[in-house]
Amino acid sequence: MFFLARYCKLLEENSFRGRTADFFYMLLFGATVLTGIVLLGGMIPYLSESFAKIIFLSNSLTFMMVYVWSKQNPFIHMSFLGLFTFTAAYLPWVLLGFSVLVGASAWVDLLGMIAGHAYYFLEDVYPRMTGRRPLKTPSL
């Protein structure tokens, strides 16, 4: 819950300032991608058991927001539990490692990273390469 509140607030106040519709569109895109991945993953024989255990995607959606924030703010210095410092670009990997250490499923975090990377690529990288923006928020 802490990560949801913190990174949702940071994204909305910094990256999406004055662009509430774009922020909502990012969340909608993430929820759609995560749902699609879990539905398709449930059809693959060796992965179906892992995906069947994922009931709620809210943690993956939160992890997606952490991933997008870390990609947009890669040079911010952070500390993890006061043990070591790193830049924000490595935050998703540090959290993934911590999840594995405490025995949580890595799939939840990995799904969030996949959805976050899909959004980051289509919103930031691809438009710089081609000049086209496939995730342009629809307007009325």
UniProtKB/TrEMBL annotation:
<dbReference type="GO" id="GO:0006950">
    <property type="term" value="P:response to stress"/>
</dbReference>
<keyword id="KW-0256">Endoplasmic reticulum</keyword>
<feature type="transmembrane region" description="Helical">
    <location>
        <begin position="101"/>
        <end position="122"/>
    </location>
</feature>
<keyword id="KW-0812">Transmembrane</keyword>
<comment type="similarity">
    <text>Belongs to the derlin family.</text>
</comment>
<feature type="transmembrane region" description="Helical">
    <location>
        <begin position="23"/>
        <end position="44"/>
    </location>
</feature>
<protein>
    <recommendedName>
        <fullName>Derlin</fullName>
    </recommendedName>
</protein>
<feature type="transmembrane region" description="Helical">
    <location>
        <begin position="50"/>
        <end position="68"/>
    </location>
</feature>
<comment type="function">
    <text>May be involved in the degradation of misfolded endoplasmic reticulum (ER) luminal proteins.</text>
</comment>
<dbReference type="InterPro" id="IPR007599">
    <property type="entry name" value="DER1"/>
</dbReference>
<dbReference type="GO" id="GO:0005789">
    <property type="term" value="C:endoplasmic reticulum membrane"/>
</dbReference>
<dbReference type="Pfam" id="PF04511">
    <property type="entry name" value="DER1"/>
</dbReference>
<keyword id="KW-1133">Transmembrane helix</keyword>
<feature type="transmembrane region" description="Helical">
    <location>
        <begin position="75"/>
        <end position="95"/>
    </location>
</feature>
<keyword id="KW-0472">Membrane</keyword>
